[in-house]
Design goal:
By secondary structure, the chain is of the alpha+beta class. It has helices at 15-25, 64-71, 87-96; strands at residues 2-11, 29-30, 34-36, 41-47, 52-58, 76-84, 108-109, 115-119, 128-133.
Length: 134
């Protein structure tokens, strides 16, 4: 069911500073910021040869990232994203196996313009998992 690793997401309190660290200190290519109001975040992607790192900052007071940063003010790993061929087939298989899909269970459009779902961290070794249809 799982294909390749799409990205690892890191919540950050200051997106501009985090992007500068990856760009200026580590020499990585960093995308321009992209606001995703539906998800309550602003993101940039650090492009790597085999995957990406997504840096995410809260957008608005109801951002789920704001709560994460209250617990971890310096930021930290937020989720890991895997690619799947068919997000509905993957969702239905996971739910049939007892996994919990967050939200209303329906895919939303992610930062890459593709359908995404998030899976409950308690079902996946304490890690929030995002699935993205490719």
């Amino acid at each position: 069911m799982l294909k390749r690793l799409n990205h690892v997401a890191i919540a950050v309190p200051d997106l501009e500073a985090a992007a500068a660290t990856y760009r200026d200190v580590l020499g990585a290519t960093v995308s321009p910021p992209q606001a995703l109001p539906e998800h309550g975040v602003t993101v940039v992607f650090v492009e790597l040869g085999n995957t990406k790192v997504e840096l995410i900052e809260p957008l608005g007071e109801n951002s789920p990232i704001a709560g994460f940063l209250e617990k971890s003010p310096a930021g930290g790993m937020h989720h890991i994203c895997y690619e799947v061929d068919d997000i509905i087939v993957a969702r239905d298989r996971l739910v049939a196996g007892g996994a919990r899909v967050l939200g209303d269970g329906e895919p939303k459009t992610g930062a890459h313009g593709k359908p995404v779902l998030f899976l409950h961290p308690k079902d996946f070794c304490g890690t929030l998992v995002e699935l993205e249809e490719v």
